[in-house]
Request: fold
Amino acid sequence: MNISLQLYSVKVDAGKDFKGTIKRVAEIGYDGVEFAGFGGLNAAEQKAWLDSCGLYAKSSHCDRNLFETALDETLAYNRDIGAKYMILPSPCGRKLQTKSDVDEMVSLLNHAAEKAEAYGLKIGYHNHALEFEKIDGEYILDHIAKGTVDNVALQLDVYWASYAGVDPIEYIKKFGSKIELIHLKQIGAEKKNVCLPDGRLDMAQIVKTAVYSKEFTVEQEPNSAEGESDIWNMLKRNVEYMKGLIL
Reply:
């Protein structure tokens, strides 16, 4: 099982030394990365550095502004670094309070998906808790899942589903092949983000249930009690745990 890291987990270090941070991700055992910003590198530089570190780029989280004003350029960048998904990570400051708001989001994703096919890419949508609020009796994420074309995949963040009171395993079963990507993020006491072995979500069962998922990506928030310096120990523990699972 290949495991990627969402680079937002190490945003502080990436802001100081982007290339060094990428290299360290490989050294602690991850197979790939999911970008949250590209560190000022052009596509050729990015791909060369990933290759030298023995990593692949599976996907990237891209701001809605890039979907609206620089879609072709950003799709080309993702293609050239080897990514397969360009993901909208949230409404990005827009409201999703009415069905009209959601329909606008669906239209944006479908338009991007049509463009993405020419680049050999798929579009993704990543949830937080707000997508499990209901409009017309259904979760916002349900509306997005049902309204988007096949070239739009859901990236289910299991932490945020659980945070909102939704069982991520049952939600994976509900939408099956629409959920091609899983964010492995653990929830513990008081809804804190804890290391993968330490919380209440059964990660092994999540992976077993997500039979259509083509990628599993770890995301981890630093433990504020111990500070940013502890994040690398947490990330190493997470990848070792996932690779040690007997599935």
Observations:
- DSSP finds eleven helices and twelve strands in the chain.
- The first strand starts at residue 3 and ends at 6.
- The radius of gyration is 17 Å.
